[in-house]
Amino acid sequence: MARPRTPIGTFGSITTTRTPDGRYVARTRYRDWDGKSRHVQTTGATKPSAERSLKKKLAERDLFQPGFTGMTADSPFPALVSYWLEDMDLEDRLSKTTRLLYERNMRTLVLPFFKDVTLREIGVARCDYFLKQLAKQSYNRARQARVVLRLALALAVRHEVFPRNPMDHVSRLRRPVRTPDIFSWDELKAIRVGISAWEHRPIKAGPRPEGQLGQVVEVMLGTSARIGEVLAIRLGDLDLDAPIPSVRISGTIVSRRGEPTHRQDHPKTARSVRRVALPGFALRAIRARLEKIRFTHPDTLLFFTRVGTPHTTNNIRRQLRDVMEQAGVPDVTPHRFRRTAATAINEIGGLQLASELLGHSDPSITREHYIRRNETVNPVTAKFLEQAFGRAS
């Protein structure tokens, strides 16, 4: 009957000998991560110190084993990053946009700080210090860095290079208090007037604006959709002759380096596909746009350039910013229209309805990032308090 093998990570008896120079050598056999037994030894000034040093070395060897990738705790952090990027491609779970975003955040935010350290040197204290220093510059950068650093170190844990993920114990980032910025009615009026003046200005040379900028703004405000989602609306997504005219938000415009701008066949997430009823002002803008489109194929985009290609979101943002600067209206961004619409729906119809309009799966996201809190308490409280505590005159 074969003898059972000694478990990996165990060692035999320790023998200690004295060298001619008076130092002590502690030795033992250790069954390593690959199943092979190897001699391990340390030296010390005394017999107890040599044995303590040996046990410490064995404990570290047990905790920080090389993974199947060949990485060890003494591998440089950039080696882990390279393997992490390769592993994401092999798993193929992320959208290409998210994959590129993670790589960018890792290379620009995390690598500059960790590029000269080994995996063994990355502990809770170092990670905590890094995130706090980055948060002084930008909360969002620190949040993005935390995500990719956690994912990379989690890969090292899965491959048994780390016993645990240091990111599990760093202190939580403190989100700065921020009130979602929305447009007032007067600001919306100024935006509409400014865009109309720009689109109808005298043109001495070159093509006259087609009115698309104003129409895009009206559809953003009337659907609370993201700018990329509005630019991705196709003729087949419109149902304007139904009793309740609506548009199906089912894609977004994507612009990646090295690729032509194109329509992605789902919004930010596949779960945020939704059909939105159109208010009158958005419906009128869409009908005005349809009058200038010669094509009728269902896949034809509602908004496109003069050469028939999709608009890039950056070009629309830049055009909107330039027009608003000329009109003297500051801080006009596409996302403010989204927050403005969501806040209006929340005040009239409640948080759940606002969350559905935005395409969020969790209403808490809507509350935290998109809704401006109404600080006015229902004035009926004054009546109730008067009834409870007022004195008869």
From TrEMBL:
Classification lineage: Bacteria, Bacillati, Actinomycetota, Actinomycetes, Micrococcales
Q: Name one Pfam family in it.
A: Phage_int_SAM_3
State whether keyword Aminoacyl-tRNA synthetase applies: no
- Stretch forming the signal peptide: none
Please list the residue ranges annotated as the Core-binding (CB) domain. 75-157
Q: Which family does it belong to?
A: Belongs to the 'phage' integrase family.
A molecular function (GO) held by this record is: DNA binding
Query: Which PANTHER family does the entry mention?
Result: INTEGRASE_RECOMBINASE PROTEIN MJ0367-RELATED, PHAGE INTEGRASE-RELATED
Alphabetically sorted, this entry's keywords are: DNA integration, DNA recombination, DNA-binding
Q: What is this protein called?
A: Site-specific integrase
UniProt feature coiled coil, ranges: none
Q: Please, one GO biological process term?
A: DNA recombination
The reply on keyword Transmembrane helix is: no
- Domain (Tyr recombinase) ranges: 178-385
